[in-house]
Each structure stands twice: as C-alpha cells, then as structure tokens.
Amino acid sequence: xxxxPRSTERILVIINSRFKEGLMALGVLEAIQVYPNAFRPAFCxxxxxxxxxxxxxxxxxxxxxxxxxxxxxxxRLAWWKxxxxxxxx
Length: 89
Prior knowledge:
Layout: H1 6-25, H2 28-34, H3 36-43, H4 51-56, H5 68-88
Helix pairs in contact: 2-3
C-alpha cells in the first residue's frame, strides 16, 4: 500500500477536526466516548466501503445554474468524483 500524499493528509486532518467539532456541538462526541459500543454499528461497517457508498453520503447543494459559483462548484464536484474513482483503485 502506498503512502498518502501530504496534501491528502492535511485534508484528512481538517475533515477529522471539523467532523469532531460537529459531533461536539450536539454532545454526540461525549456520548460516543462514554458509550463506544453503543455507537459502533453506526460508525463501523463489516463490509468494505466502496467509492459509491462514500459518494452517497454527500448531497451537494449547488448555486444557481450559470453563476460563477456554480462553475467553480462543478469543477470541485468533478474533482471529488475523480478522487473517489482513483481511491477505489
């Protein structure tokens, strides 16, 4: 298995940090830490997660068609899809 590029490592650190902040905001992180076995089915899958599974976790909310923001979002969404395909190997 190859090394993870530094840029990807930085992105994962940011995502992990924001994910934890979101869980803390609702008191969920503390509950997970106190009752890890109760939350294990929600966060740990026995089957291998596919790129399609990860893609289904996110629903993009894009700007209006034709706007400058929408153009940027389209590029980023394409990058995300390409990343998932590449990560699936």
